[in-house]
Amino acid sequence: METKTPRLFILIVGQLRSAEQTIGAFREYCVGLPEAKIVVQCGASEGALAEKCFPGALIDAWDPPEPLPWRVRWAWPFLGEAGSECGRRKPSFYYQLLRQYRALDLCADQVDVGRDWILKWRPDLRLFGPLDWASHSDEKMISLPPNDNFGGYNDQWAIGPADLMFHYLRRLERLADYFAVGGRVQAEAFLKWCLNGVPVRRWSVPYCMDRGTHLQPVVLSQEWDDVFDHDLVDKLRESAVAVDMARRERSYPHVSFPACGRFGQHWQRALAWGWRWSAGVIARRAGASVL
Description:
Elements: E1 8-13, H1 19-29, E2 37-42, H2 47-53, E3 58-61, H3 70-73, H4 82-107, E4 117-121, E5 125-127, E6 142-144, E7 157-161, H5 162-169, H6 175-180, H7 187-194, E8 200-202, E9 207-209, E10 218-219, H8 230-238, E11 243-244, H9 261-272, H10 279-286
């Protein structure tokens, strides 16, 4: 029986604020980029910039509907740092789920789930070394970064066989179930919960977030469940990227899932009640084929 060569689908998801600075390194280091099918899901005002940075890609310039669903707005945590959570983290958390779902919807009918691979990538990430997915194309698992996990799984990029990446990209559909077991709103914790039972490995690809004005330090702390790699640290530092191995953030307490205490768990279950039936409706709002 003939074995078909895997194809690569690249989903670029997020704001293009520093895409002009990062696209050169992405073209240089992403193996197989010229042959890949690229989908760019960006802000509604960024269509022209997307075409400039990713010529030939399928461009979807779209913004999620506002406001946040009230269950997300009132999800745990809603005390303490509720202002910053609602103002920045919760919208980022929820709208990224919508954008990823929509990006996959744009090309899902072209993907051979038993053959192809999918890379989900943020356009503000800068590469400093090869992203050679083809050398791992016989491995049936999702590859994730070893850094910036904050006790869960880093959601900045991921790559793997299409059938496994569908779990990753459609996790919006599982948000109500996550609330029902007491899960708090934290992107890394939610991703780890969604990938329970899915084979995952850490791939030490040298990269960092490019904010446009500066390179954001990479966090590599075993306290946050990061996987320490001396070679990765050396490569990042050679590339003028700071590596923080002792970072503490009050807003990311390092405690085990569900990380919101007994009252918080009851609160999340109450929010989830009556919402599960509408999870498909919520997901379809993000689907390009129905808008």
